[in-house]
Amino acid sequence: KDEKRRRQRFYLDMAKDVDKKVSKAQELYQELKQVLRGRDLLVWRGAELLYGLKEQKLYKFVFGMEEKESNKDSWKSFVAEIGVPLSTADYWIAVYKKWIIEFGFKVSDLKDINIRKMAIAIPLATSKEKATELLGFARELSIGEFQKILRKNEEPCWHLEKEIRDEKVKYCKACNKKVK
After folding, report:
1. Torsion-angle region of residue 171: left (phi > 0), alpha (psi -120 to 50) or beta?
2. Angle of the 2-55 helix axis to the 86-96 helix axis, nearest 10
3. pLDDT tens, 134-159?
4. Which 3-state string (H, E, C) describes 98-151?
């Protein structure tokens, strides 16, 4: 009888520990989502600043580079000096130029979309209408699904019909992928 009570207490304590861990995990997950949203906003702000510095050639005045006539790689030197890889700076600028300058979207329209998705969509964003459509896909799909749509130029699966299999894991009936 004591053994039975001890086992019951053990499982009850274990369940409480699991509840605490679930609660802590959810708390950390929510905080992480906020941090990542903040990061994405900072990336857009960084893209805006880099665009302004490069477009207006103001980077030449930051470290006195304007005095060096033979410095052919002054943009390259500038981004190296600030610790940003040249490829990152150039792709941030390209994304900012396409989506903000060319199509007139606001950062608030794009803040919940990872900038990588925006970069890979640039070649297909040929008009404001197509860009708006791509934004919808980018907002709703994972980066892998988004890339697949862009490569095949096909309609995405919106996972409208779901079924539960394998102990509460949901799958889309149409495309057979795991969904939330």
Report:
1. beta
2. 80
3. 999 998 888 888 888 888 765 555 55
4. HHHHHCCCCHHHHCCCCHHHHHHHHHHCCCHHHHHHHHHHHHHCCHHHHHHHHH
User: Which pLDDT does position 112 carry in this prediction?
Assistant: 82
Amino acid letter, residue 77: S
Please tell me the predicted confidence (pLDDT) of residue 92.
Answer: 94
The SS3 assignment for 56 reads coil
For residue 55 the two structure tokens come to: 């477009």
Residue whose pair of structure tokens reads 């190296």 in the numeric block: 80
What's the pTM value of the predicted model, to 2 decimals?
A: 0.68
C-alpha 49: how far from its chain's center? 19
Fill in the DSSP letter of residue 169: E
68: left (phi over 0), alpha (psi -120 to 50) or beta: beta
- Overall average pLDDT of the 10-15 stretch: 73
Asked whether the predicted pLDDT for residue 77 surpasses 80, the reply is yes
Name the phi and psi angles at 10, rounded to 5: -60, -50
Please give the backbone phi and psi of residue 111, each rounded to the nearest 5 degrees, phi first: -60, -25
- Report the candidate in 112, 104, 134 with the shortest Cα–Cα distance to residue 44: 112
96 versus 63: the higher-pLDDT residue is 96
Query: What distance in Å separates the CA atoms of residue 138 and residue 151, rounded to the nearest whole number?
Result: 14
